[in-house]
Amino acid sequence: MTATVANPNVTHVERDKLQPDANRLVSSEQFAVPENNAFGNSFRNYEEESERNSKVENFYKNSHINQTYDFVMKMREGYTKLNRAEMGIWECCELLNEVVDDSDPDLDEPQIQHLLQSAEAIRKDYPNEDWLHLTALIHDLGKILILQKFGGLPQWAVVGDTFPVGCRFDESNIHYKYFKDNPDFNNPKYNSKSGIYKEGCGLDNVNMSWGHDDYMYMVAKENGTTLPDAGLFIIRYHSFYPLHQHGAYAQFMNEEDKANMKWLHIFNKYDLYSKSKVRVDTENVKPYYESLIKKYFPEKLKW
Predict the structure, then answer these.
(1) Confidence of residue 107 (pLDDT cuts 50, 70, 90)
(2) Residues 20 and 3 sit within 8 Å (Cβ to Cβ)
(3) Looking only at Cα atoms, what is the longest distance across the chain?
(4) Helix or strand or coil: residue 301?
(5) Nearest-CA neighbor of 143 among 204, 100, 173, 88?
(6) Rounded distance, CA 191 to CA 16, Å?
(7) CB–CB of 288/134 below 8 Å?
(8) Which helix (H) or strand (E) holds 111?
(9) Under a CB-based contact definition with an 8 Å cutoff, are residues 159 and 183 in contact?
(10) Is 19 exposed, middle or buried, given 0-12, 13-18 or 19+ CB atoms closer than 10 A?
(11) Which regions of the chain does DSSP assign to beta strands (E)?
(12) What pLDDT, on the 0 to 100 scale, is given for residue 273?
């Protein structure tokens, strides 16, 4: 079953009809989940004492203190203009050769390798889901926000686990203790369970901490991608670990979110466990991904 969208002018209603069904998906193989990451530790282990984890903890300290509701609104307003560059998807992929994610305890390789490792692992197990291969390739492209041309934002404003702002910070968030120094922590407007939102309002109506997820979702949507909505959901919420790993903030989900979450769970396994020191031959796989880019995106995008 392939989610194919040939017409770039597909309406939202038509796109809904093209949504792939995760309940009917059958993998050609079972992805083997490794026991340890590239450093010999268990994955997403934030407690192991190491120089890498000390750096990661300091990252989350800065993130949790500075990601306020007002900060997020300011970032969204500025980056919605998409006026910093005009380039194609593969050109953006190559920019990630310059980016290493300080929030990641599992890998310290340039980000383009993580994208290719994720995409190739999914491609092997789900050969007919080409939209999912491309989603894996582009899901972290928003990390270009670290680069000077795109604002040179500090890593705490670009990477790491995401969480809603405008409501109580859930204790399932990594290094939760640092939220206590966030100005919103004691603000009565924001510190109830649902804060400024209503239960069942849909994640689309909840403001998330600013970073590469929301930025890349914005870029893809505003440039008219024909990826199915499940692909856009993965891009936007793949770092929302408090929800898809712990079930926190689930009160905001609507039925569409719940359907798309099934795809995010499929994707998450490959995003997390395909990280490796074994590099993918970029030039060998480039023609395949360029064909998918041509299928689902315009030649040039505004960033």
Answers:
(1) low
(2) yes
(3) 55
(4) strand
(5) 100
(6) 35
(7) no
(8) helix 111-125
(9) no
(10) middle
(11) 86-87, 301-302
(12) 76
